[in-house]
């Protein structure tokens, strides 16, 4: 039995060391890559002073195109939205943006309509994209403060045992790390300003009888984002993107709101219920650019 | 509790430590601990069904005990009947009730009679087909006077519920495993080390090979008519490896865990995809089930000592019953039927024993690939939800209408999963072929080999959204 325990211990120690070395090396590679938006922002984005940034989930990512907005407004923006994320992740992205010495005049927040009034937040499916920065306090606090919807919080414990996160998300982290060794500038489905659009398929028009969605801004992370913006002199703009089935009714007069849920009525711009096709992306970005110009005019 | 889950990662070392360091002194206490650990393992999934195992254990223990004492042939037959009715009754109710009701209704419906009988929302208790067959073999062997009944209820209950093989086999015969519970176990370093290696290898087959294949397979089988010939062929081949990785991986882990506790469990898979005909395939695939059917169905029907016509009949019965054992769906019965059709020509030409003892020669590569493809096509029925779906799959496959792999272009993630599957299948085949050529039953690897396998599991395995073990549903 002693021999067996010795065998297991020696196997375990060597295995653990190898795992740790590979994991640390993988995260080191990812941290120097442009594969996901957090390291992309640090490594590839040379500009520090932005006029606006877009925070959000897949709708923010696919509806607003900063190339188009910038060409109309003459301002400089970047799209930091990540698909499949919630308000808590947007707050984390804003912290990451500021922690890396970047500043912005406006922060445009666009996320799923359901997220605005969600009382309880969980770790999201794509929160692992910050794992290469797990040693930063704001990232660790984020992983520590939220629980996953089910199961074990691998993200939290990855601070000390990075192989947990790397193994659990191996196709999302280990293979991109391998690919980043050879292609350090490769981006994961977004362009040089963080935009992504759906392919140029023919879209469908909005429904004739749309329902009304009330937004009461109850999510506690909204307060956190608002506070962080205030502390850094950032003007927060809530942007509700075109929606095929619902119109938004906001219950807030003190907030900057751009409500474009009902702008595409007859035109076939929808990819699905909440996302637009390339043409829709172009038109929505133009409409948004005009709203941004108005805001700047008011200020000036 | 799944072998590839976090609770089991804590459960196994805890049980191992208590088994060897705390409860080793007294055999009965150690066996009692095995029962407790096994019931915790099973109850983790659904404690309500523990009652079924306990009932099955008590019935067969009492029947076996009485069979040992009873000399009167009629009473012995009644006792055997009690065991058969109870075990098969439980199995029939939980596994086949709704199937029989639906088939009955469909049959009347085809004659124009509409019926609305009550179907029940029955949950299939995990592993019921496995432990039922295990306890049945005990009473049948005693009835045949091939085994003496045990008087030790604790040892018998530990034999029935032994957690490594409780829910998905190997189906252990009492004459092989039960004596190991009545004799003292001793820890042997090499035996336990080989067990560890088997666990690692089984885990590799499950979480790397099977679970990576599962993504592409699920996509293809969901709507087969939307894919090209090449995609469907790939889907069928990957399912062949998925089910092999899944089931043989579980068996390897079970055997490996058995070794950690000082038990020798029988080999359940002997590299079946290197078989050179269907007969050899069935000597290598799910050996504990095929030998069970051989001993308790085929031989009682007359086996191969009857006329050729009856032999063919017997083979067909065994394959159809074996298909039905897998699940309450016509797809499994058709799958069994296909294997019968593939087996019968070998029987007619007296070729069933071919390759029994022979090693590998390069000229056998063609029959090997041929056998694999035939088995793969039969798997289409096994995996499909209905006969209609399987026929659509095969029809689209053999239309040879397109040979593109657009699925990878449209969803690149499937390409990654399929590449990992391909790479891991290659590793698996290379490793197993080496053992097959040496006519070994299990793999052996060094310290370094074990480390590489463990690292591959960590970095290629599926830990997020893993698939359930396929054979749990049986």
From TrEMBL, chain A:
Q: Does the keyword Transmembrane helix apply?
A: yes
Q: What is the lineage of its organism?
A: Bacteria, Pseudomonadati, Bacteroidota, Flavobacteriia, Flavobacteriales
Could you identify this protein by its name?
Uncharacterized protein
List the transmembrane segments.
6-30
Q: Which UniProt keywords apply?
A: Membrane, Transmembrane, Transmembrane helix
UniProtKB/TrEMBL annotation, chain B:
Query: Which keywords describe this protein according to UniProt?
Result: Acyltransferase, Cell membrane, Membrane, Transferase, Transmembrane, Transmembrane helix
Q: Which domain of life is it from?
A: Bacteria
Q: Does the keyword Calcium apply?
A: no
Keyword Lipid biosynthesis on this protein?
no
* Annotated TM spans: 6-22, 51-67, 79-99, 111-133, 153-171, 198-220, 227-244, 330-349, 361-382, 414-433, 445-463
Where found, per UniProt?
A: Cell membrane
Question: What broad class describes the main subcellular location of this protein?
Answer: membrane
Query: InterPro entries recorded for this chain?
Result: Ac/AlaTfrase_AlgI/DltB (IPR024194), AlgI (IPR028362), MB_O-acyltransferase (IPR051085), MBOAT_fam (IPR004299)
**UniProt topology in membrane:** Multi-pass membrane protein
Q: Which family does it belong to?
A: Belongs to the membrane-bound acyltransferase family.
State the protein's name: MBOAT family protein
Q: What species is this protein from?
A: Snuella lapsa
